[in-house]
Input
Amino acid sequence: QLQLVESGGGLVRPGGSLRLSCSVSGFTLDDYAIGWFRQAPGKEREGILCISSSGSGINTAGSVEGRFTISRDNAKNTVYLQMNSLKPEDTGVYYCAAQGDAYYYCARTTKEYNYWGQGTQVTVSS
Output
């Protein structure tokens, strides 16, 4: 059974940093691309970053370019989302998800992802 579990969310002041973790089980990171998504209240879910199963393909949304980065630790079966220079508009529930057949390239559209975590809340506020 494929499972993804997010952790690391919380309350942070504008300009601060957080690192989210996505721990996966039931599969390896060599087989699935992992994407990070977020959803603010009243808005659609937005794909912000993903890393392909080879690790060589990273797809970044313009809204987080230069502030957020994605990385992974295959030995720990964990993907990280490092978020720096956080803004109030980064507030939302953050999800990680798994996409199959994405060796060199990963998509940031929700329809490409079959497996989802439960989400973790990130609030950026002073």
Summary: The CA atoms of residues 4 and 24 lie 4 Å apart. The mean pLDDT is 96.
